[in-house]
Backbone:
């Protein structure tokens, strides 16, 4: 069964803090870790998911909150490669490496 959002979620990042706030006044405020601290970022993502489940947020609302992190450079697995990055990486390969890649 599909669930609809009942409570509006506002997600902001300011002054090194992530704030999730619902229209119903429920609020979560967390300090942002160093972007290279993957364990801390993972813990932050877990806290967001837990807050979402506790406050009956939709999957879309939780994903939007998580996307706020990635938009601001907080990745667990690194940014997704773009076509430009893929083309650049292929150009760095030797002719022989490119041939093997296409086999």
Residues:
């Amino acid at each position: 069964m599909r669930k609809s959002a009942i409570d509006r979620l506002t997600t902001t990042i300011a002054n090194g803090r992530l704030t999730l706030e619902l229209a119903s006044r429920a609020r979560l405020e967390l300090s942002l870790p160093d972007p290279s601290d993957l364990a801390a970022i993972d813990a932050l993502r877990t806290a967001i998911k837990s807050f979402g489940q506790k406050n009956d947020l939709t999957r879309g609302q939780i994903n939007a909150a998580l996307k706020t992190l990635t938009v601001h450079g907080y990745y667990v697995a690194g940014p997704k490669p773009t076509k430009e990055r893929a083309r650049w990486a292929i150009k760095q390969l030797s002719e022989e490496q490119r041939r093997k890649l296409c086999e």
Summary: The mean pLDDT is 86. Helices lie at 38-54, 59-71, 83-92, 95-102.
